[in-house]
Specification:
This protein has eleven helices and ten strands. The chain has 357 residues and is of the alpha+beta class. Keywords: Disulfide bond, Signal, Zymogen.
């Protein structure tokens, strides 16, 4: 009993010393034990990871790979939590989405490919005589029935084909009042010009050239997506669902010109879209705080399907992506407008293009 009393007295004395000498946070950490004081207990993070893995149906080849993926997840989760904690009302929100067990290097390798520099010029710009005051202050082509459901490129770097198809779907609906989901797979298999290489890389202008020269493109229902380039074009005999007469480039490095184009139809856009914030983007306007870093190295393609101004007064572009509805805002992303000189944020104004029906 004497030993127990001595131990109790010593513990009481230590607690009193801690209470008077240490900040409140350390007192609470002392009460909770070494994990809360920075001792490295991963139980909460591991529980978060296991729930994430179950929600996303994630399995791995062995325990070593799972352990490695847990470490990647933890690093990403800490980045996401820190970003969200530091952000204000205008800052975008990030989340541990389906890409949370990929390093950003892996993510960029899977989903990003460099775009070639096109020879822009000579094709005209049909909206060049339109004044900015003549177009709506905001527009959303989804609300006007010119945008099909968000698609998923999966493990194929085929963003270029999805971007081109979305732009053609848009102008086809605007001209015919008939919205048809078109075949991305046909572009992977058949649009094999000098810059188009299936799941490895491609350019939207090459896709537009193919559709023009081919006399059109099939419906997705007749030529469905298979998550890989098959190496053989199977378009023969399939009915044409939409056609275009050609395409034009938006004058480069000019967000006003891009606005005029998007006011009339969805536009294909190349940009730096595989940074860490893009990888985990959940909601809000990317670039609203001008601290979400990106470059002008064009490595991804989306489709500008609108523009507007949010409740905080931030002007944005509305982008349709091809990473499925479980990324971003149902597969969409808002990117800040008129915040970067010339190139547009992340280079989005450097080489936009659109089909002409």
């Amino acid at each position: 009993m004497a030993i127990a009393s001595s131990s109790f007295s010593l513990a009481a004395i230590l607690l009193i010393i801690i209470m008077y000498c240490c900040p409140t946070g350390l007192v609470e950490a002392a009460r909770k034990g070494p994990a809360a004081a920075g001792g490295g207990d991963d139980s909460a993070m591991r529980e978060r990871y296991e729930k994430w893995a179950a929600d996303h149906g994630r399995t791995y080849k062995d325990s070593l790979e799972k352990a490695r993926r847990f470490e990647v997840f933890r690093t990403n989760a800490l980045f996401i939590d820190s970003f969200n904690a530091a952000g204000g009302k205008k800052s975008p929100r990030l989340t541990t989405n389906k890409f949370a067990d990929l390093t950003n290097e892996e993510f960029a390798e899977y989903y990003g490919r460099p775009f070639s520099t096109p020879v822009i010029g000579g094709s005209g710009f049909m909206y060049g005589n339109v004044r900015p005051s003549d177009v709506p202050a905001n527009i959303n082509w989804r609300d006007r029935g010119a945008v099909t459901q968000v698609k998923n490129q999966k493990d194929c770097a085929s963003c270029w084909a999805f971007s081109a198809v979305a732009a053609v779907e848009g102008i086809h609906q605007i001209r015919s009042h008939n919205l048809v989901a078109l075949s991305t797979q046909q572009l992977l298999d058949c649009s094999t010009g000098r810059n188009n290489h299936g799941c490895n890389r491609g350019d939207m202008d090459e896709a537009f050239r193919y559709i023009t020269s081919n006399g059109g493109i099939a419906a997705e229902s007749d030529y469905p997506y298979e998550d890989r380039a098959l190496g053989t074009c199977r378009a023969s005999g399939k009915p044409v669902a939409a056609s275009i007469r050609g395409f034009q480039y938006v004058p480069p490095n000019n967000e006003t010109a891009l606005l005029l184009a998007v006011a009339h139809q969805p536009v294909s856009v190349a940009l730096d879209g595989v940074g860490k914030v893009s990888q985990f983007f959940s909601s809000g306007v990317f670039g609203a705080m001008q601290n979400e870093t990106c470059t002008t190295d064009l490595n991804h393609a989306m489709t500008a399907v609108g523009y507007g101004t949010d409740e905080h007064g931030t002007k944005y572009w509305l982008m349709k992506n091809s990473w499925g509805t479980d990324w971003g805002e149902g597969g969409y992303m808002k990117i800040a407008r008129d915040v970067a000189s010339n190139t547009g944020l992340c280079g989005l104004a450097m080489q936009p293009s659109y089909p002409v029906a």
